[in-house]
Amino acid sequence: MGRLDGKVAVITGGAGGMGKMHGKYFVREGAKVVIADLESSDGKQVAEDLGENAIFLPIDVTDEESWKSVIKDTEEAFGPISVLVNNAGIVKQNSIEDTSLEEYRQTIHINQDGVFLGMKHVLPSMKKAEKGSIINISSIAGIVGGTSNLAYTASKFAVRGMTKAAAAEFAEFGIRVNSVHPGVIRTPMTEQEGIKEMVQEMEKDIPLKRIAEPEEITNLVLYLASDESSYSTATEFIADGGMIQVM
């Protein structure tokens, strides 16, 4: 038996990085998985590689109609949704002075509004399933502040707070909501020019002396998606190699 047998999961940002790894592990553990992403070519390939228990559905996490379409198509393909991983997000490295209002709003729109819309629109489907687990991917930037990433920090603090509010509201339906706060992870996002150099400097201050591989975060997300975490809700789960604990 798999740890996610009988579960239907939607993973946003599932075409690459951590999202891709989440999908791989979820299917391996018995879930039926929707890879939801703006990147159609990569998303289709990921779903194809995962086999018959995975499909790709295009999504713009900032668009309400897009969410409605994904929920509807997921139910038609696999049935009511029991797991949502709000994984899609962006980061732009800039000082406050050099951050335009447009850049700030874009980050908030994707990282914060996308999580709100996901939780809102998955709720009716999870009510049909009579249980559910929502995993919101935040960051250690949702726990502590840092330089040159105000918009990202604002969005990730918001995700942390929204997680707690939703957990309180959804508990009566048997739906759990938790946030995951990764530290520095080896993903395409952290390999971006301008961010890669910063990551290399941060690595020196991590007690475990290395950045994490995507599967190390996936194992935590998998735990929260499974019934093994049945009494965990409204909680921050930090995986950062001890970084913020010794700052």
TrEMBL record:
Any Pfam family: adh_short_C2
Give the organism, scientific name: Alkalibacterium pelagium
Q: What is the lineage of its organism?
A: Bacteria, Bacillati, Bacillota, Bacilli, Lactobacillales
User: Which keywords accompany this UniProt record?
Assistant: Oxidoreductase
Query: Which domain of life, per UniProt?
Result: Bacteria
InterPro entries assigned to the protein according to its UniProt record, in alphabetical order? NAD(P)-bd_dom_sf (IPR036291), Sc_DH/Rdtase_CS (IPR020904), SDR_fam (IPR002347)
One annotated GO biological process: bile acid metabolic process
Q: Which PANTHER family does this UniProt record tie to the protein?
A: 3-OXOACYL-[ACYL-CARRIER-PROTEIN] REDUCTASE, SHORT-CHAIN DEHYDROGENASES/REDUCTASES FAMILY MEMBER
User: Which family does this protein fall into?
Assistant: Belongs to the short-chain dehydrogenases/reductases (SDR) family.
Matching Gene3D superfamilies: NAD(P)-binding Rossmann-like Domain (3.40.50.720)
What name has this protein been given in UniProt? 3alpha(Or 20beta)-hydroxysteroid dehydrogenase
Recorded GO MF terms: oxidoreductase activity, acting on the CH-OH group of donors, NAD or NADP as acceptor
Keyword presence, Oxidoreductase: yes
